[in-house]
Amino acid sequence: MASGSCMCGDIKYEYTGEPAVTALCHCIDCQKWTGGAYTSNVVVPRTNFKVTSGSPKTWDAKGDSGKVNKHFFCGQCGSSLYTELEVMPDVTCVKAGGLDNGAASLGGKVGVEFYTKDRVSYLHEVSGAKQEPQFG
C-alpha cells in the first residue's frame, strides 16, 4: 500500500498493489497543471485507489483525444492530486509528488515518457523509459 496527501493535509488517499506503470507526461496541459516541466505519475487500477480523507475539487479538460481528463485537486491549498482520463477508464494517474515516504522517486524507475514532442529543451530522456511523442 502507498499513501499520499495534498500539501495542507486536508485530502488524503491511498492505493494498494503495484502500479500498472510509472510515467512522466510532458504535454502542455500537464505543464500548466503543475506549473512545472512535466507531471510524474503512478498509474494504478481505479479499484485499488481511494480517497481516505477530505473531498477533492475537480476540473475537466479536453484531451487531444477529445475526451475528458478530470483533474482532482485540493480546494484549500491547490495541490494537484490525481487525474482520471476517459481514454483510460480503468486507471487513476496519481501525481507522484504527493506520495508519502519518498515514493515520489517512483522506485528509481520511469516506465514511459509521454508527449516527448513537448518536452522542454533542458530535459533529456530518462534512460530505459519508453519514449512516446504523444499519448499511446
From TrEMBL:
Protein name as catalogued: CENP-V/GFA domain-containing protein
Keyword RNA-binding listed: no
InterPro entries for this protein: CENP-V/GFA, Mss4-like_sf
Keyword hit for Calcium: no
Domain CENP-V/GFA stretches: 2-116
Xref: Gene3D superfamilies: glutathione-dependent formaldehyde- activating enzyme (gfa)
Lineage of the species this protein comes from: Eukaryota, Fungi, Dikarya, Ascomycota, Pezizomycotina
Superkingdom of source: Eukaryota
Coiled coil: none
Molecular function as annotated in GO: carbon-sulfur lyase activity; metal ion binding
Family: Belongs to the Gfa family.
PANTHER family referenced in this protein's UniProt entry, alphabetically: DUF636 DOMAIN PROTEIN (AFU_ORTHOLOGUE AFUA_1G03180) (PTHR33337:SF30), GFA DOMAIN-CONTAINING PROTEIN (PTHR33337)
Native organism: Knufia fluminis
Keywords of this entry: Lyase, Metal-binding, Zinc
